[in-house]
Write a structure and sequence with these properties.
Largest sheet: 7 strands, parallel
Number of domains: 2
Radius of gyration: 22 Å
Order of helices and strands: EHHEHHEHEEEHEHEHEEEEEEHHHEHEHE
CATH class of the largest domain: Alpha Beta
Strand order of the largest sheet: 1-2-3-4-7-8-9
CATH superfamily of the largest domain: Metal-dependent hydrolases
Structural class: alpha/beta
CATH topology of the largest domain: TIM Barrel
Helix content: 25-40%
Length: about 425
């Protein structure tokens, strides 16, 4: 089931009033747009700082300039006049956990989305109050951000961790730390693993200067390895950024005829490496003394792509269609299974757009075989090779991948369906 629990009924502008936007008609516009895109459950999560009660938590000048509306009136509107799930997006503020809990626990939210927009008094994603103007190095900002993110997860205040690498918001307009960024992600992973909090995969970054999904694939892979569940979201603030998973393309003169909904899904799989098995990635056998153990041929990359396609189309998951308890799939050719899924999507009216995937493997290096893997996947998907991207990364000695005990893969797929 496709969901989007992180959206806003109004923009971030000061003049975007509750009176104008907290209406049944506006909520229904979001519901209609979500239904067109196959999203079955929708929730609204307004920023807590837009409400007067937030000033009992923090009186930062930015919050004080926005905190005018009544939080209880918002809750009543969502509960009594819409069919949306009731959520709130609340900032994690170190040292203000008790004040935050007092505001949150006094109301019966269905869920709470936690975010980190400020490190100390500095803002990560706005020029005013910017942390980047405080003379701190990129390394200091990134380290502080991910340490704070880990504490947000541990706090127990939140159900979902929003845009978890927001620190990259500005893209190339702000300096990046040198070297492998996973050393910063690692600072938050223990808190994410211990808390069981869901990690948000958000298309919001595509609309920001960084122009990429939150979080980075390497960070998401680490979260999945740590056992974190995933929540898909749009973080939409207006319908030109439609709820869930991307965009709608219009026909001539803004007509609704031929509207195409673009949907995204993610897939992840991992297998143990053992002796006496072939190592297959995307249908290509990779020379190595170890191979992946599994019920089928254990092609971890093909499995991740299958789950990404099924997720994008809302058609279940690989275990539902090809259970490892069914002997028909013992030793099955995973590229053949991928072909079955592609045919299934087409039968349901979906067209594939692109696939982006990352293989996590310590040894051997994928480089010499990357082109063959890409071509094999593109052929199975029926896509031009330029619409299929294959990347590779190692575990840098961290986790089961880093220790050479296993192989993992992460895939993101986009599909279109005519509304």
């Amino acid at each position: 089931m496709l969901t989007d629990y992180h959206l806003h009924l109004r923009s971030d502008e000061h003049e975007a009033s509750a009176r104008e936007h907290f209406t049944e008609a506006n909520a229904q516009r979001y519901r209609n747009a979500a239904t067109e895109r196959g999203i079955q459950e929708l929730g609204v999560s307004e920023h807590i700082y837009r409400f007067a009660q937030a000033l009992s938590i923090w009186q930062h000048p930015f919050w004080a300039s926005y905190a005018h509306d009544d939080l209880d009136a918002y809750c009543s509107f969502v509960r009594e006049h819409t069919d949306l799930r009731l959520g709130i997006e609340a900032d994690y503020l170190a040292g203000r956990e008790e004040q935050t809990a007092n505001v949150l626990q006094a109301r019966a939210f269905d869920y709470v989305v936690g975010s980190v927009h400020f490190v100390r008094e500095g803002a990560l994603d706005m020029d005013e109050f910017s942390v980047w103007k405080a003379g701190r190095s990129p390394e200091q900002v990134w380290r502080s951000y991910f340490l704070t993110l880990g504490e947000a997860a541990r706090s127990g205040l939140f159900d979902v961790l929003a845009h978890p690498d927001l620190v990259k918001y500005w893209g190339s307009a702000r300096p990046l730390p040198e070297g492998d960024l996973r050393r910063y992600y690692e600072l938050a992973i223990d808190g994410i693993a211990e808390s069981g909090i869901a990690v948000e995969v958000s298309t919001a970054g595509l609309r920001k200067p960084v122009k990429e999904i939150y979080p980075a694939p390497a960070f998401l892979a680490m979260c999945l390895e740590a056992g974190a569940p995933v929540a898909l979201s749009s973080d939409a603030h207006r319908l030109r950024a439609p709820p869930a998973h991307a965009r709608a393309d219009r026909g001539p003169a803004g007509s609704r005829a031929g509207v195409m909904s673009t949907l995204c899904g993610i897939g992840y799989d991992s297998h143990r490496l053992v002796a006496g098995r072939p190592l297959l990635l995307g249908g290509v056998q990779i020379p190595h003394e170890l191979g992946a153990s599994g019920h089928s041929d254990a092609d971890v990359l093909a499995h991740a792509v299958i789950d990404a396609l099924l997720g994008a189309s809302g058609l279940g998951d690989i275990g539902e269609h090809f259970p490892d308890t069914d002997e028909r799939f013992s030793g099955a050719d995973s590229i053949g299974l991928l072909g079955e899924v592609v045919a299934m999507l087409k039968a349901h009216g979906f067209a594939l757009v692109n696939v982006d995937c990352t293989v996590l493997l310590e040894q051997p290096k994928l480089g010499p075989n990357r082109s063959a893997v890409r071509s094999s996947l593109a052929h199975a998907l029926g896509l031009d090779p330029e619409r299929v991207n294959v990347k590779a990364s190692t575990g840098e000695g961290i986790g089961f991948v880093g220790r050479g005990e296993g192989v993992a893969a992460l895939a993101v797929a986009s599909v279109e369906r005519a509304s």
